[in-house]
């Protein structure tokens, strides 16, 4: 087996003026980085991360993905300290190095790596995000997480900690596998089932596949930058095999995944033949029994009925108005602690829900310089429990961390 065709596409989306994503498509190295921060900081952070990976590739084998990712982290922190406009910037990174039937993966943040094997799509990387953390601890269901207002808040990123924790693991490749690396601009707009459907339809042309994925994200709203990188494993000897330098690992090798990741992976199995077959029971024609046409009630009777229903209708409308007024009053007094799309902790008025059509039942009233990724996991779970409080209590909870973290 060997590395086959690849394709990549990055788009700003419909809501962002700039594209802060960066990617690498230099076989055998592929990567996606999703920058965060104000001004041009997100773009700078993602570019520094992928540049460190590219330089590691060009410096010659062996390539240490973890070391290259940590070098990107060091450069981002160094730039943040030297340039006040870039202070607080960061980026996700998901990188894959293909070598002799094995994929080495380095991962930080909520960009994702997927594998399409046959007709089954699997998420290979865990999300380092607030909602994923809440799902793992049982505070949210997977269904609640899909529409959660803080689903874009990441809990691990390059640039926020000098000793960034990098997930590294390996998976065994098979002929016919298609791999997708993407930023969350795709996955927050397009569900896994639709990603699978697009890859299945377009797997004969990866260029068409990445165009279709980006188009689907934009059609769903395009609320963030969208980046997709695809590559395929095909039959045939690799350059090393042709020279007899290295043996090819067996194709049936077991995929090596962390226990936590295996528990949160997404699988979409094809329906079985039994599920696809529907047997119709024999039916007999029903007898038609002639009936007399309904008798039209007198006009005066219908009018009386309408008059009797009127008080109930009025009462219902009054109760509805009272309920709406009570709901608005509750929303005006309720506050909770959350984080914005850049990961900055803030206080919100309302309740942490979204209605269909992305109608928010909350609005920000205070944005803190504290980033969610600066907090420990116990601190995040305590701060983002989404309990409803008064504005003063919510502000007090945030300012405890401001005194510790903001210089």
Topology (SSEs and partners):
Blueprint: E1 2-11, E2 21-26, E3 29-36, H1 41-58, H2 65-82, E4 90-91, E5 93-99, E6 102-108, E7 112-117, E8 120-123, H3 130-136, H4 142-146, E9 167-172, E10 178-182, H5 184-187, H6 192-202, H7 206-219, E11 226-234, H8 239-242, H9 259-264, H10 273-276, H11 299-333, E12 335-339, E13 344-355, E14 359-371, H12 377-383, H13 391-405
Antiparallel strand pairs: 1-11, 2-3, 3-4, 3-5, 5-6, 6-9, 7-8, 7-10, 10-11, 12-13, 13-14
Helix pairs in contact: 1-2, 6-7
Give a description of the structure.
By secondary structure, the protein is an alpha+beta fold. It has two domains: 273 residues, Phosphatase 2c, domain 1 (4-Layer Sandwich), CATH 3.60.40; 72 residues, no CATH class. Helices cover 36% and strands 25% of the residues. The protein has 13 helices and 14 strands. The strands form three sheets. Strands 2, 3, 4, 5, 6 and 9 form a six-stranded antiparallel β-sheet that branches. It has a five-stranded antiparallel β-sheet with strand order 1-11-10-7-8. Helix 1 runs antiparallel to helix 2 and helix 6 runs antiparallel to helix 7. The protein is globular and about 80 Å long. The two termini are 54 Å apart.
């Amino acid at each position: 087996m060997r590395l086959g065709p690849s394709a990549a596409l990055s788009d700003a989306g419909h809501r962002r003026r700039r594209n802060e994503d960066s990617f690498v498509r230099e076989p055998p190295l592929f990567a996606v980085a999703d920058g965060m921060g104000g001004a041009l900081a997100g773009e700078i952070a993602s570019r520094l991360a992928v540049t460190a990976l590219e330089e590691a590739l060009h410096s010659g084998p062996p390539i240490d993905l973890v070391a290259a990712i940590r070098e990107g982290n060091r450069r981002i922190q160094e730039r943040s300290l030297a340039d006040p406009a870039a202070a607080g910037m960061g980026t996700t990174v998901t990188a894959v190095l293909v070598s002799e039937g094995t994929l080495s993966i380095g991962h930080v943040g909520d960009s994702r790596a997927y594998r399409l094997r046959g007709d089954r799509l699997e998420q290979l990387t865990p999300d380092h995000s607030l909602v994923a953390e809440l799902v793992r601890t049982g505070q949210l269901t997977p269904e609640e997480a899909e529409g959660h207002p803080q689903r874009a808040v990441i809990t691990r990123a390059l640039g926020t900690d000098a000793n960034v924790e990098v997930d590294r693991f390996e998976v065994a490749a098979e002929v016919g596998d298609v791999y997708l690396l993407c930023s969350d601009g795709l996955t927050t707009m397009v569900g896994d089932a639709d990603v699978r459907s697009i890859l299945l339809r377009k797997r004969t042309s990866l260029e068409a596949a990445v165009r279709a994925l980006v188009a689907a994200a934009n059609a769903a709203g395009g609320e963030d930058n969208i980046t997709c990188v695809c590559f395929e494993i095909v039959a045939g000897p690799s350059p090393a095999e042709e020279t007899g330098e290295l043996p090819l690992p067996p194709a049936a090798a077991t995929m090596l995944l962390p226990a936590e990741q295996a528990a949160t992976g997404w699988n979409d199995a094809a329906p079985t033949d039994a599920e696809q077959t529907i047997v119709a029971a024999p039916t007999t024609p029903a007898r038609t029994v002639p009936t007399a046409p309904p008798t039209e009630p007198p006009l005066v009777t219908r009018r009386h009925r309408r008059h009797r229903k009127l008080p109930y209708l009025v009462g219902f409308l009054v109760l509805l108005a009272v309920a709406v007024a009570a709901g608005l009053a509750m929303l005006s007094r309720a506050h909770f602690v959350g984080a914005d799309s850049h990961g900055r902790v803030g206080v919100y008025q309302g309740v942490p829900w979204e209605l269909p059509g992305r109608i928010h039942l909350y609005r920000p009233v205070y944005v803190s310089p504290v980033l969610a990724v600066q907090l420990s996991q116990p601190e995040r779970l305590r701060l983002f429990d989404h309990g409803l409080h008064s504005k003063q209590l919510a502000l007090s909870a945030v300012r405890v961390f401001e005194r510790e973290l903001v210089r």
